[in-house]
Amino acid sequence: MLSTHGARWLFAMALFLVFPQPASGQAAWVSDQFEITLRTGPSTSNAIERMLASGTQVEVLERDAASGYARVRTSAGTEGWVLIRYLMSEPSAREQLRALTGQLNDATSEGATLESQLASVRGELNEAQLRVGELEREKATLERDLDEIRRTAADTLGVNQRNQSLRQELSDAEIRIDTLEHENRGLRSETRHLWIGTGAVSVVVGIILGLWLPRIRVQKRRYDRF
Asked: Parallel, antiparallel, or unpaired: how do β-strands 57-64 and 48-52 relate?
């Protein structure tokens, strides 16, 4: 018959073969069935350091197939020995569900945030499109105003050129008027001289006639006597 130690050894080997064992240095989780003891050594005779709740993650440092214990380290840095059969190579279903639920909540929250951001972006896009429409209308108005200013400027240039031409014509007309006035003054002077000369001739003719007419009458009387 096998001794108690031999039977325990065979039982540990069976458990080791049946259940997947975490390799050294890899993460492992306490089974979600109950709490397990973390002892100072690889046997039930060693003192219990603390109790590990199901789902607690530990780091496997070494394993002792003969005793069925593994030396582990908790996230807080506490080292001790736990039964290998209570360790799993992946988190428990409960922990996985909790993690998945957290991820789902995070994804839902992120989706809501993205949806809110998308709505905000759409609102900004609509505002930008409205602003673009306003700017296009303002541009069309400014272009019409610019065309009107150009036409007005062209008309103003034509008016300025016409005014300059009229000023030149007015200047030429003023020069002609001055010339005519000068000629008129000359004609008046000549006319005045002519009237003076005519008056003098008339006086001379009157004097001559005054001297000759009496003589003609006297001679006529003499002829009448004969």
From this structure: unpaired
Tokens describing residue 24? 């050294």
Nearest to 88 by CA among 103, 70, 75: 70
- Nearest-CA neighbor of 82 among 72, 93, 96, 92? 72
pTM greater than 0.85: no
Rounded-to-integer distance, Cα 162 and Cα 170, Å: 12
Give me the residue spans of the domains in the chain. 4-91
> pLDDT 10s digit of each residue in the chain, 226 long?
445 444 454 454 544 444 455 556 777 765 555 688 999 999 999 999 999 988 888 999 999 999 999 999 999 999 999 999 988 887 766 666 667 787 878 877 777 787 888 888 888 888 888 888 888 888 888 888 888 888 887 777 777 777 888 888 888 888 888 888 888 777 777 777 777 767 777 777 777 777 777 776 666 665 565 5
Q: Which of 18, 51, 49 is nearest to 36 (CA)?
A: 51
* CA gap 123, 118 in Å, rounded: 8
CA separation for the pair 49, 31 (Å, rounded): 18
Domain with residues 4-91, CATH architecture: Roll (2.30)
CA-CA-CA-CA torsion for 95, 97, 100, 106, nearest 10 degrees?
A: -90
> What is the Cα–Cα distance from 61 to 22, expressed in whole angstroms?
10
